[in-house]
Write a structure and sequence with these properties.
Elements (H helix, E strand, L loop, with lengths): L9 E2 L2 E9 L3 E8 L3 E8 L7 H15 L9 E7 L2 E7 L4 E2 H8 L4 H20 L2 E2 L8 E4 L4 E4 L6 E2 L34 H16 L9 H10 L16 H10 L11 H13 L9 H12 L1
Antiparallel strand pairs: 1-2, 2-3, 3-4, 4-6, 5-6, 7-9, 8-11, 9-10
Helix pairs in contact: 3-4, 3-7, 4-6, 6-7
């Protein structure tokens, strides 16, 4: 059965102009508001309106997102229920997902990566200061405007409140939330993690932006799951043949990817600072390999 299309309707004062996306739980419309202008308008999917769990999760996303005020976070205007529909009205952010942009541009220059990482770290810091752990940081949840080179973070659908009491910090054993390619290893047990899980996800994104590949090479969910729990990530300078980065940059990224959260940087801001310092260190040193050593030896004999 095809999903309903609400384009043309006015709901809670928002005129829905066109449907621009849909996911498993909600549909997204480009909308217009008489005071706020262009907006994004999310509506819980028709088949989920009678599901209390789906409704609770949708409203949780709205509530958590509304607590974070930062230029790098898509602003939540309001949410509620109107005409039998659960809705969420958001700032309209120009651009495409960071995933779409990188798939077209391939690898990004380190300086550009550092610029994006700093912006994302600042946005995540604002969320952490508001007591919100994102838990699903990935390129698909980041809007990038190539014209301004600005990013905006969105989708707090599986975020959690860092101030939850201890008895509420566990989910079902063996159940995790997040996207496997970017999820922190400690989340695989189902424990509701702290802000250091967002550092791991940001480090994974940084690695991907720099190399075009991921730090774990598993080709199936089962293989990737096992690697996250037991294997070390591929070092940054071994990710792509012929591609080298400053040692300080590799160290910063790999520290963010540490399996033990206590071995990562203490905050997302500290991670970004180390990445920026690593990029500023300049190109990777040349002449460290065996072939270069042999060339130098031959040169000295001449």
């Amino acid at each position: 059965m095809s999903s309903e299309n609400l384009a043309g309707r006015t709901i809670a004062g928002y005129r829905l102009l066109e449907r621009v996306g849909e996911g498993g739980t909600a549909e997204v419309y480009r909308a217009e508001h008489p005071e706020r202008g262009p907006c994004a308008f999310k509506v819980l999917r028709q088949r989920l309106r009678g599901d209390p769990t789906a409704v609770k999760r949708f409203l949780r996303e709205a509530g958590y997102g509304s607590r974070v005020r930062h230029p790098g976070v898509v602003r939540t205007y309001e949410y509620g229920e109107a005409d039998g529909l659960h809705y969420l009205a958001l700032e309209w952010a120009d651009g495409k997902s960071l995933a779409d942009y990188v798939h077209r541009a391939e690898r990004l220059a380190p300086a550009q990566v550092g610029h994006l990482v700093r912006q994302l770290a600042d946005a995540l810091s604002a969320a952490h200061q508001a007591g919100i752990i994102h838990r699903d940081l990935k390129p698909e949840n980041i809007i990038y405007d190539a014209a301004t080179e600005r990013v905006k973070l969105l989708d707090f659908g599986i975020a959690r409140d860092a101030e939850l009491p201890a008895e509420e910090r566990l989910t079902r054993t063996g159940f995790f939330v997040g996207t496997l390619q970017y999820v922190a290893p400690e989340a695989l047990s189902g424990e509701l993690v702290d802000g250091r899980a967002d550092i791991f996800s940001l480090a994974t994104i940084t690695y991907w932006l720099l190399t075009g590949v991921h730090p774990y090479t598993g080709r199936t969910p089962r293989e990737l799951f096992q690697q996250l729990l037991t294997a070390a990530p591929v070092p940054l300078n071994q990710a792509v043949a012929g591609l080298e980065f400053p040692a300080a940059l590799e160290a910063a990224v790999m520290r963010g990817l540490a399996r033990d959260p206590a071995k990562r940087q203490p905050t997302v801001g500290a991670f970004a600072a180390e990445v920026e310092a690593g990029i500023a260190a300049g190109p990777a040193p040349k002449g460290g390999g065996l072939l270069d050593a042999l060339k130098r030896a031959v040169g000295r004999r001449r």
